[in-house]
Amino acid sequence: MADSKSVASMFACNVFNQTVMRERLPKNVFKTVMQTKKLGIALGSNVADVVANAMKDWAIEKGATHYTHWFHPMTGVTAEKHDAFISPNSDGTVILEFSGKELVKGEPDASSFPSGGLRATFEARGYTAWDPTSDAFIKDGTLYIPTAFCSYTGEILDKKTPLLRSMDVLSEQALRILRLFGNTTATRVLSTAGAEQEYFLVDKGLYDQREDLIITGRTLFGAKPPKGQELEDHYFGNIKERVAAYMHELDEELWKLGIPAKTKHNEVAPAQHELAPVFETSNIASDHNQLTMELMKKIALKHGLVCLLHEKPFAGVNGSGKHNNWSIASNDGQNLLDPGDTPTENTQFLTFLVAFIKAVNKYSDLLRLSAASAGNDHRLGANEAPPAIVSMFIGDELQALLDALENDTKAEVNSNVKFKIGVDALPSFKKDNTDRNRTSPMAFTGNKFEFRMLGSADSISCTNVMMNTIIADVLCEFADELEGAKDFNGKLKEILVKAYKENKNIIFNGNGYSDEWVKEATEVRGLPNYVSTVDCLPQYLADKNVQMFEKFKIYSKVEIASRTEILLENYTKVINIEALTMVDMAKKQIYPAVMDYTKDVCSALASMKSVGIENPTQEKLANKLSSSLKCLDAAVGELEQALINAKDASEDIYKLSRFYRDEVFSKMQSLRAVADELETIVSEKYWPFPVYSDLLFRV
Ligand code: ADP
Ligand code: MG
After folding, report:
1. Measured from the CB, is residue 448 less than 6 Å from ligand 1?
2. Can you tell me which atom of ligand 1 is nearest the CA of 337?
3. Residue at which a domain ends, from 158, 176, 195
4. CA–centroid distance, residue 347 to ligand 1 (Å)
5. CB of 673 closer than 6 A to ligand 1?
6. Which of 526, 561, 580 is the C-terminal boundary of a domain?
7. What residues make up the domain containing 448?
8. At how many degrees (to 10) do helices 488-503 and 396-407 cross?
9. Domain shared by 136 and 231, yes or no
10. What CATH number corresponds to the domain at position 683?
C-alpha cells in the first residue's frame, strides 16, 4: 500500500500534464499549448506535430504501444479504438510514429453509435477531434487522447462537444458582467464541478448467480430482507476489510490518472458507499467521472466484488445518486458564487445568484431532463432522492436578504456589510454545512450549488451543459440591459428586484421529500412535475429551449431532436431488456424451483396421509404454492402479451416509450409482486438465486 510520500509521486504519474509538457516541449510550443488549455484557443497544426511527438516518446517510455482517441458517444459509456504507433519500413522493420494529424483528428466508423436518425448509414464516417483542455493519459499500455466526436456533416454525436461549447458561452457572458463590476484582470470564466459518486459492492460469487444483475445491473426480483437500512448503522460506519482494500486500490489507480479522489465513506444503504473527488473544471471533472466509474467496476473484480452503478439495484433500500457540485470561477482567482467580503463582491455575488435563480426557474425542465433515465425513474420522487419537481434551496438568511432587496427594507440579519446598490446587507454566512438542506434538488451550499437529481450511472456532462448555458442566457440578458445604463447601480437594482420577484417561486427551503411540498409546488406554485423520463424528455424541444440552444450555438434543433430520440429509445430498450429478463428468470428458474418444492411438500403430505397423520399446515402450504404458481404464470403471460403488443404499439418513439411505461413496466411490477411473495414461502434450499440478505450483507 502507498505511503504518504509515494502518494505525491504517484499522483498523475500517468498523465501528460503541464509538468511533463514543460519538461518535454520547446518553450514556445509549451506556451502555445498552455494558452490553448486556459483560454480555449485552437492550436495550429505546426505545433500539433511537436506535441504529438513528445507525447509519443513519453508514452513509449512508460511502456505504451498504442494510442486511442477516447470519446463520449451518446451510449453513456466512453468509446475507444486502439492503433499501434508502428509504421512499417520498406525493409520489413517498423518505426514508432505519431503525427500531429493523428493527434488532432481521428476517423472512427460512426455507424454503430446512437445518432437519433442524424446520420444515415451510407454516410457512416465520424470524426474525433482532440480536446487539448483535458490531458492525455496512459492506461493499460495505451495513450488515451480525450476527444470530441461528430458526424461527417458536422452534427455532434457526443457529450463532450456541447459541454465545451457551454463553457465558452458561460465564459463570454460572465466576463461581460465582471467587466461591468470593474474587473479588468479576468480573461476566462470556468465552470467547476465535483461529482460525489455513490455505488454498491456485492460479492462476485453471488452476483454471478443472478441473471438480472448480470444483464440489467439491478435486481428485478427480491423480497424485502428482515433488515434493511432502518437501523441507520451503515452510514459513515466503519469500513469492512475487503471493502477498505478495494477503496485503497481504487484511490491509488485514480491518483495515477491525476483524478483527485478525496473522500470515501459508507452510505445509508447496506453495501452502499460513496467517493467524492476534489472539484475541477466541468470538462475535466466529466472525463474524470467517466474514468472513475470505469475503474470502480474494474478494480472491484480484482477483490472478488462487483460494483453496481445502477441507480436502483435493490428495491426497499436507497438507490444511488450522483451529486453535481457546481460553481463558476474566474481565472483571476474568484469563485463567483462565493458571497465575498466587500460590498462590490457582495453585489456581484448577488447578481450571479439572482441570475441563477431566474435561470433555474425558467429552465427547470432542462435540469429535470438532464437526470432522466429508466434507472433514475426509480429514485426521483421516491422519498430517498429529491422529488421530480425542481426547486432551489438558498437558506433562510439569503432569502431574507433578497426579500429585503425586493421590498427596499433592512434585512433582519446580522451584518455590517453594505451593498453598493444601496441596501443593507450581506450577512457572513455560516459556511459549514450543518444546517444544509439535503432534500433539495438544487441546494446552495455556501459557495456552490449542489444538484442532487442525477443518478449514479449518469454522465455529468448533460447537467453541466444545462447549468452553464441557462445561467449564461440570463447573464447575457442582464449584460444587455446593464451595458448601456447611465446609472449602473440603479439599473442593477431594478434588474435584480424584478428577476427575483418573478422567479422566487422556485425557492423552497423546506423538506423536499414531504407530500405537502408536492401539493404546494404543483397546486399553489404551479411548478412543473415531470414524474417520469417519458414526461420530461419531450420538453427538450420546447420553443424556449430550442431558441436558447440555437442562440448560443450549443445544439441545433435537429441535434436536440436527435438527442431526445436517443434518450427515449434508450428508455424503451432498457425496459424491454428488463422485461425479457424477468420472463426468462420466471420461467427457467422460479417455475422449476416452485414446482420442485411443491412436489416435495405434496409427496411428504401424501406419505403422512398414508400412515394416517393429518397435516393441515402442510396442506395449506401446498395449496398456497399451487395457487401462487398459477398467479405467477398469469403474470408472466400478461407481461409477454404486453411485449408482443409493444411491437406494433407505435412507430413514434414518443408514443412507444409511453406504452412501455404504462403497459410493460406496470406488468413487470405485478409479476415481481407475485414472485417476491413466493420467495417468502419457498424453502431457501429450493430458491434458485441468492436473496437480498445474501447480496446486501455478505460482502
Ligand atoms: P457533502 O457530502 O456534504 O455534499 P462532500 O465533501 O462529499 O460534501 O462533497 C462536496 C463536493 O463539492 C466535493 O466533490 C468538492 O470538491 C465539491 N466542491 C467544493 N467546492 C466546489 C466548487 N467551487 N465548485 C464545484 N465543486 C465544488
Ligand atoms: Mg453531497
Report:
1. yes
2. 23
3. 158
4. 24
5. no
6. 526
7. 166-526
8. 120
9. no
10. 1.20.120.1560
Cβ neighbour number for residue 171 with a 10 Å cutoff: 23
Q: Which one, of 72, 325, 309, lies nearest residue 195 by Cα?
A: 325
Task: For residues 174 and 71, state if they share a domain.
Answer: no
Atom of ligand 1 nearest to the CA of 335: 23
Give the ligand whose atoms come closest to the C-alpha of residue 431: 1
Q: Are residues 178 and 136 in the same domain?
A: no
Residues 323 and 429 in one domain: yes
Is the overall model pTM greater than 0.85, yes or no?
yes
The helix (run of H) or strand (run of E) holding residue 560 is helix 557-585
Rounded to the nearest angstrom, the distance between the alpha carbon of 688 and the centre of ligand 2 is 38
Grid cell of 658 as nine digits = 409511453
Cβ of 267 closer than 6 Å to ligand 1, yes or no, is no
Of 281, 256, 315, 255, give the one whose Cα is nearest residue 160: 281
Q: What is the mean pLDDT of each run of 10 residues along the chain (699 residues)?
A: 80 97 96 82 81 96 96 91 92 92 86 76 75 94 94 87 96 98 96 98 98 98 87 84 96 98 92 97 98 98 98 95 98 93 83 98 98 96 85 91 84 50 46 62 95 97 98 98 94 96 96 92 96 97 98 96 96 98 98 97 94 92 96 98 93 96 97 98 97 93
**Which of 196, 274, 445 for mutating ligand 1's site (highest number of atoms within 8 Å of CB)?**
196
Q: What is the CATH number of the domain that holds 225?
A: 3.30.590.10
Q: Three cell numbers at 26?
A: 520547446
Q: 43: domain CATH number? A: 3.10.20.70
Shared domain check, 674 and 608: yes
Q: How many domains does the chain have?
A: 3
Would you say the CB of residue 7 lies under 6 angstroms from ligand 1? Answer: no
